[in-house]
Design goal:
about 80 residues; alpha+beta; flat; three-stranded antiparallel sheet; 4 helices; 3 strands
Length: about 80
């Protein structure tokens, strides 16, 4: 049986700890701290694998506070 190739490229939905940390722009130690203090989501289990949901990471990242000074987006969305 042959497998049809897919012309579309899909980003992975489930990320390893290292990939999840890199995705949000921090090291693994900082990422672990952010999961522990609930700024980032807990992982999911797929059999024996531990993975982070990329969509949940996006949502958690969007909830992080902005830097204190006003920026371009603050002016637009205020």
């Amino acid at each position: 049986m042959s497998v049809k190739s897919d012309p579309l490229s899909y980003p992975p939905r489930g990320l390893s700890r290292e990939e999840a940390a890199r995705y949000v722009g921090v090291g693994t130690t900082k990422f672990d701290m952010m999961v522990a203090d609930k700024r980032m989501p807990k992982p999911r289990k797929i059999d024996g694998r531990t993975v982070w949901d990329r969509v949940e990471l996006d949502i958690a990242f969007s909830e992080l506070p902005h830097q204190a000074r006003e920026n371009y987006f603050d002016k637009i969305f205020s």
